[in-house]
Fold this sequence. Notes:
globular, 6 helices, single chain, alpha/beta
Amino acid sequence: MQELKNKVALITGGSKGIGFGVAEALMQQGMRVAITSRSQQAADQAVALLSKTGKGEALGIAADVRNGEAQQKAADLVVSKWGSVDVLIANAGLGYFGSIETLTTADWNETIDTNLTGVFHSVKACLPALKKSKGYIITMASLAGTNFFAGGSAYNASKFGLVGFTQAIMLDLRNHGIKVTTIMPGSVATHFNNNQPSPEDAWKIQPEDLGQIVVDLLKMNPRTLPSKIEVRPSLPPHP
């Protein structure tokens, strides 16, 4: 997939943060990019910003990844509009943090349903189109998918599970010509976990950095597959 112009990508959770950074990078390559958000207003606002690049095309769709039917409708809409899905970026995610003593069942369920089951729904919805296009699936996991920490039981479980899921489907799908990669970022300058991005976040990975990684993956020779990529800030603050 070395030539990206007019290729079609579906990005879940694309209205802000990492998803938006990836969408910007893909549109700079002249791609057609559909982003999903739980809010149609947020999706439309993001599309308005993306369209200012003057390259590619953008589409905003309200779809909650926890709902398999909503994901299927989103995939069908993209195919009906642009004829294919060449790239799925399964990015939507959230986190609740705290001791198992205080973690609620609702917090657990929302974390697992969004970060893990939501990716399953997105992959299943896009799979027929990806088989036709011999496309690419990229999941956004986390270093928390390898490194556990106190207060992270739900988030760690979801991201450990996502890494395992992604690596398994990579083996399932490669004979269909579909490439699968999981990207595992460390600290990223986004609104995740109620953070407000500021100049103090300059040391963190920036969303556009992950966008560049995605572009590099898509342009890589098809014979080679970086199946799991860990990404860290080069110079985190000293403790």
